[in-house]
Amino acid sequence: MNVNFRYNRRTNNIFRRLGMPGPAPIPFFGDIFSIIHKGLNKYDMDLIQKYGKVIGLSDGKDPTILVSDPDLLRNVLIKDSHLFINRYVIRGISGPFEHGLLTLQDEEWKNARTIVSPTFSTAKLKSMYSLMDEVSDMYNKRLLEYADKQEIFDVKVLNGQYTLDNIATCLFGVETNSLQNENVILINHLKKFFTTDFVKTSISILIVLISTRLASYLSKKGYSFLPSDAVDYTSCLVNQILSRRRQHLERRNDFIQIMVDHEDEMKGQEQEKTLTKNIHTLNDKEIVGQALVFMVAGYETTSVLMSFFFYVMSTEPIIQEKIYEEIRNEIGDVNYFHENILIMN
Known about the structure:
Layout: H1 2-12, H2 14-17, H3 32-38, H4 40-51, E1 54-59, E2 62-67, H5 70-79, H6 106-116, H7 122-149, H8 155-172, H9 185-192, H10 198-210, H11 212-220, H12 228-246, H13 255-271, H14 284-315, H15 317-331, H16 338-342
Antiparallel strand pairs: 1-2
């Protein structure tokens, strides 16, 4: 304990020895309590006003530099980005998210990104349009039902269902239809990723910040701030879908199919001995990890943005009518294909 305390104190004081301004950290905890008390954004703004544009912090056991100088940020993010390829990773987290793009580093990250990036190409997105169009039809049907009945409803709940239905069909290749039936097993499990226990999550984060070894040990023993039943169900479902796709029992234009097609392409090139790049395929755990990262990144951001749009349109009827007329003038009564949407500005 004494050795760990000395190591932690020496690590926390590294910026002070370098003459870099910043707050005095608490041993083991760093600045975590101040972040919890003020919130990350407010805390960062207060530090910038007090210490300047380059500040030395301690995030638990890890020294962290807070940069707000535009020229320095430009160098880090653009000019010298090849020297800063890794994201900040909270070590000690296990499970499917440890295989996601947000946590992979160096060559593992580069390999996964090379494989996953084509998913967002124009051609691949266009191929998924029919899947999203089916979900959108059900979404419009629900809106018309509420309008006909003049019934009050929670638009955020409806947008959340719409977003999760799109995620389920475009990532996992599953038609959930939670817009018509809320009691869908997959959707209920996916929702658990966004309704975690605050106390449990806070304790887990503190353990990770204080001791990554303890966090790794507990993770291997099955302790996690993620809902274990949701992780197990989602992983099992993806593995079943992967098995069927690899046996060519079914085919859909979704993320999992893109990963399976990549596997087939690599196998074909290897057999023909034309595989020149050191690019591998993703294993099942890595595929699940990427899918869950996309889900977390896309769910809240999309549903909240849509809800905010609804709010603005309801409070600004003149703007709402103007947008409606512009869409009608550009597209008319034709189906909303990918090309039609691109012509609107």
